[in-house]
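Notes continue from the previous slide.

Worked example: a multi-chain complex. Inputs as given:
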Amino acid sequence: MDAFTTHTGRAVPLRRSNVDTDQIIPAVWLKQVSRTGFDKGLFSAWREDPGFVLNQPAHQGASILVSGPDFGTGSSREHAVWALQQYGFRVVIAARFGDIFRNNSTKMGLLPVVLPAETVEALQTAVEADPALEVTVDLGERQVRWGGEAAGFEIDDYTRWRLMEGLDDIGLTLRNADDIAVYENGRQPWLPTTV
Amino acid sequence: MGRTLAEKVWEQHVVRRAEGEPDLLYIDLHLVHEVTSPQAFDGLRMAGRKVRRPDLTIATEDHNVPTLVGPITDPVSKTQVETLRKNCAEFGVRLHPMGDAGQGVVHIIGPQFGLTQPGMTIVCGDSHTSTHGAFGGIAFGIGTSEVEHVLATQTLPAYRPKTMAIEVSGELPDGVTAKDLILAIIAKIGTGGGQGYIVEYRGEAIRKLSMEGRMTVCNMSIEAGARAGMIAPDETTFAYLKGRPHAPSGDAWDAAVEYWKSLATDEDAVFDTVVEIDASTLTPFVTWGTNPGQGAPLGTAVPDPEATDDPAAARRALEYMGLTPGTPLREVAVDTVFVGSCTNGRLEDLRAAAEVLRGRRVVTRTLIVPGSMLVKLQAEQEGLHEVFKAAGAEWREAGCSMCLGMNPDTLAPGERSASTSNRNFEGRQGKGGRTHLVSPAVAAATAVTGKLTAPADLA
């Protein structure tokens, strides 16, 4: 995956709660067997409404999505992350995330940033007032900065390191292949196999 | 201090623990289907990796398959299913394709084969993997990157979630089912209430549930935000498992049962959070909105958005659903009824629907979709299909079907369903479709009257 250190860009305020992954990428798009081509599917039902925030000219080219709470609930489809990235988003900011979505994001280098609900709203309001506002998300400092404001966020050291280095999880795990082999030899004898 | 069920199962599976890193967790069973796996197999190929333990991996075709007899006509769906077949052949993974007697929804076939057992870690690229926790294991959904990781290493790096106990005291009244219970739980704690937790469902009402009811409850843990839900194994669990094709037998069975009995949460264990529910106060429950937490007892009315926790979301949901505050839920007319899915597509669910439909006629389009080909066979051996057909319902082949409409079974824009599935998200069952989540019994009664109805309402 691509490394993530610091990103500066414009933001889009999405004032909705419970933005489930079926909205982010409807199931009809999941039939593809490739990893590409999902940008058109991003919020495809909502984007049919000309008034939807992503359709507003002022927000074109934005790379930071600022959403209401419980973003990415529901289905485990990683396609939701791919769609956001392929549309151009590098960061999603919300007060709460669905656990699987958040996990999938960190595997792909899309940064999920948790900020308190009132901070998210303040940022949304600031972006609505000035869509050209530059927002900086600094993973090294664990900080979001905009227009003289700054808000810290938490992320565990390990995930932060992996994101900043752009490391492949499988490669990291395979360094411990010996541990896996030792564990396998000690598994309970009655555990089932599929053969 | 004692340990919880979740802590015991987790500790048993830690391959490697190091300061400042997530635990490396061994995975006992990896379930695979056609939708979330193609890019993972591609990743293996590009890196020159193989499947580490094909003998702990099993695949089925479920999301895309048509439920009318015949080939897949959608070329994109067809390609996806054919890709799974090619991948399973290349990497040596057992597959149950369409038409096979073992085919079915991924979360139905694991338990059915006896592959889902207490104390195991089970993953699948599907959020409803939480279903398998009903047997007392840790089972959770993963994304495609993690599917590739498990294929390559049979492990996952993960931090242990916090523990939540949902204590369900009392007994469920007659006519109130596991589905009503879990819908009530989600309405109580919200769609984010379980985020960061493994939930253990406990208490008298849970102990009295069948394995099928327990699977329904654990299945929807993700709808409350919890990645996993689990129930301690007991005699009900052992009786369900005994004799199944992949369950242990002979001395191995005795050793396994002894171990399984040791998994229950210790008396002095402490959960990070405890939620209490009195089952005896519950009644049939339905959803009125566009997330599974927007639900209410069937005997109530469409709520006033201003009286809800999230008025903006409720207003938006009611607009999408075409509902007016104050309308009794029993007055809501539906066009289509769907009985099936990994939530409610097992034999007991079909029996509950058949009991209501026996000797009655449906007035809505009614799809009855068994969760697996074995469930279909068993239902037919009991004559349930004849009950459904006589009532005017459609008896279909096994698959995910209208739960998410990746196959031809969808709602038209504006069409309203009563559905035994797990998600009432906007467009979930077809673009513009409106979904009310219900139990199989309520679904069947609704099919008879054309409005949201409980069996007790029928004359």
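Summary box: Residues 5-273 of chain B form a domain with the Aconitase; domain 3 fold (CATH 3.30.499.10). Chain B touches chain A through 88 residues (CB under 8 Å).
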